């Protein structure tokens, strides 16, 4: 085998964060390399560097060019989790659109080419129906076929980023067969996944990233579930939780039974005043869907839903805010703010009634005074209330988001990845704000893929898997090791697999 891709001592930093710290990897022809690690480990940053989205700060990325193979130059191709297909277009149209043409010169030839590419991976399906009518597995095959179209030789590198998230077992089997065929033909494959069973089944070798550092690079044959979990977390199963907390929880602020919708199949949940409850689970577990379901931004059904002791049957964001609920989304720029508005405008936007004069206009002096108070309280830097939101750093944007919602003294605070993309200083300030909100009587729900964050903040953590509650951890069972085991569906508190 020859090396197709070599990554040597790659470094990537962001303000206050080293995302990749001298990471080195290689991928050989015919090899399937799995790259795994927790959220924030550096996997996504590495993919974005390989794809050219980010520029590396140091190090080298080298693709092979070999006279032995007729001066073949290795190319890189990517299959992302969302597949980047246009649902309303057919498989055929998605394939030739990727070539930069709106319509082919020879439709019959393109159709034959599409059927040939898809046929490499099993049964050929109808390439003339909209992609949205295909199964998730068939859509994944279309994305792979599109990536392969135009390969002049098989000695390329293909990166599959969480490709099995929406696939059933039979579709995963078909995809793996396709990936193995690519490797057998001479391609190098980088497989990024949080599903450890799939990693052990498919990969020849596994590289583990933790906090931007490569901590392992070993043949799959030498690994098992327990060893992978230990490498991912950096802890053994005997390690205790970060801290023990005794909280006198008050009355139920949110009580839901039989919640259904989005990625949630069935969930019972009670949040009490003064407590911080975590929601854990791997991508696709339902963790990402839960906050918007509770907030009413995504339609849901429930057998019973009470907010601050009152039934809440018809849920939508405006009414949720009126009833005392607040939601800080993971995507603060797209979903949590108006980028072109100032810090002042963003912070006062959810509740303007208290600022209105008798004539209905906004009391500008009162608004400025309140915005200045919030900026001081949350230590927003620079302390410029009239600066455009988009001009602040990520950490200060998040502080503005917390100021915006905590200004209303919510009864229920829903947090989704609350410290994603912020530096260490901002993270500490946000943790203090979360704990202060709970101490003031709010019930706080923290949905996070960061196990250390959940351990730092929460008294108990509910682990979701496949849209239902898999486990609830608290006390001595609330450790990073146990969170990872439970999230991946591995057994269990005894360390058995």
Structural write-up:
The protein has 497 residues and is of the alpha/beta class. The protein has 3 domains: 231 residues, 3-Layer(aba) Sandwich (Rossmann fold), CATH 3.40.50; 176 residues, Rossmann fold (3-Layer(aba) Sandwich); 64 residues, no CATH class. 30% of the residues lie in helices and 25% in strands. The chain has 15 helices and 21 strands. The strands form 5 sheets. Strands 7-8-9-3-10-11 form a 6-stranded mixed β-sheet, with helices on both faces. A hairpin with a 2-residue loop joins β15 and β16. α4 packs parallel to α5, α7 crosses α15 and α12 packs parallel to α13. The longest helix is centred in the middle third of the chain and has 16 residues. The relative contact order is 0.11. The C terminus is likely disordered.
Global mean pLDDT: 87
Query: What is the architecture of the largest domain at the second tier of CATH?
Result: 3-Layer(aba) Sandwich
Taken as a percent bin, the fraction of beta residues is: 15-25%
CATH class of the largest domain: Alpha Beta
Q: What integer value in Å does the Rg equal?
A: 25 Å
Low-pLDDT regions: 237-244, 492-497
| Total discrete domains | 3
Largest sheet, spatial ordering of strands = 7-8-9-3-10-11
Largest sheet: 6 strands, mixed
Salient structural properties:
single chain; 497 residues; alpha/beta; Rossmann fold; 3 domains; six-stranded mixed beta sheet; 15 helices; 30% helix; globular; disordered C terminus
């Amino acid at each position: 085998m020859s090396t197709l891709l070599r990554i040597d001592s790659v470094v990537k930093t962001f303000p206050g964060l080293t995302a990749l710290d001298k990471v080195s990897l290689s991928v050989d022809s015919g090899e399937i390399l799995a790259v795994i690690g927790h959220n924030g480990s550096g996997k996504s940053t590495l993919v974005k560097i390989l794809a050219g989205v980010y520029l590396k700060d140091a190090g080298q990325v080298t693709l092979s060019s070999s006279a032995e193979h007729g001066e073949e130059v290795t190319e890189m191709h990517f299959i992302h989790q969302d597949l980047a297909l246009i649902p309303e277009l057919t498989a055929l149209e998605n394939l030739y659109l990727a070539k930069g043409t709106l319509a082919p010169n020879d439709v019959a030839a393109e159709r034959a080419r599409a059927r040939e590419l898809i046929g490499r991976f099993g049964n050929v399906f109808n390439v003339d129906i909209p992609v949205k009518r295909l199964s998730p597995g068939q859509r994944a095959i279309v994305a792979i076929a599109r990536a392969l179209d135009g390969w002049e030789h098989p000695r390329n590198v293909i990166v599959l980023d969480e490709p099995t998230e929406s696939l059933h077992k039979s579709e995963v089997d078909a995809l793996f067969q396709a990936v193995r065929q690519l490797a057998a033909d001479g391609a190098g494959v980088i497989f990024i996944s949080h599903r450890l069973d799939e990693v052990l089944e498919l990969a020849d070798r596994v590289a583990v990233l933790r906090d931007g550092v490569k901590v392992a690079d070993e043949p799959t044959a030498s690994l098992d579930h327990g060893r992978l979990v230990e490498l991912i977390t950096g802890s053994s199963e005997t390690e205790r939780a970060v801290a023990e907390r005794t909280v006198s929880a008050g009355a139920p602020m949110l009580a839901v039974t039989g919640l259904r919708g989005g990625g949630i199949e069935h969930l019972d949940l009670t949040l009490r005043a003064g407590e911080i409850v975590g929601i854990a689970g791997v991508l696709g577990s339902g963790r990402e869907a839960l906050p918007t379901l509770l907030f009413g931004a995504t339609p849901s059904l429930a057998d019973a839903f009470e907010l601050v002791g009152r039934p809440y049957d018809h849920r939508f964001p405006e009414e949720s805010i009126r009833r005392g609920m607040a939601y800080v989304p993971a995507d603060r720029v797209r979903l949590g703010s108006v980028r072109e508005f100032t810090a002042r405008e963003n912070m006062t936007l959810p509740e303007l009634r208290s600022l209105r004069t008798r004539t209905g206009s906004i009391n500008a002096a009162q608004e400025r005074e309140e915005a200045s108070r919030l900026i001081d309280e949350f230590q927003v830097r620079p302390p410029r209330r009239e600066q455009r939101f988009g001009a602040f750093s990520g950490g200060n944007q998040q502080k503005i988001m917390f100021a915006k919602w905590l200004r209303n003294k919510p009864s229920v605070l829903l947090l989704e990845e609350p410290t994603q993309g912020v530096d260490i200083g901002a993270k500490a300030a946000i943790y203090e704000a979360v704990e202060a909100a709970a101490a003031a009587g709010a019930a706080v729900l923290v949905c996070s893929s960061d196990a250390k964050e959940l351990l730092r903040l929460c008294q108990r953590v509910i682990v979701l898997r496949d849209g239902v509650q898999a486990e609830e951890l608290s006390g001595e069972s609330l450790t990073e090791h146990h969170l990872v085991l439970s999230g991946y569906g591995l057994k269990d508190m005894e360390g058995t697999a």
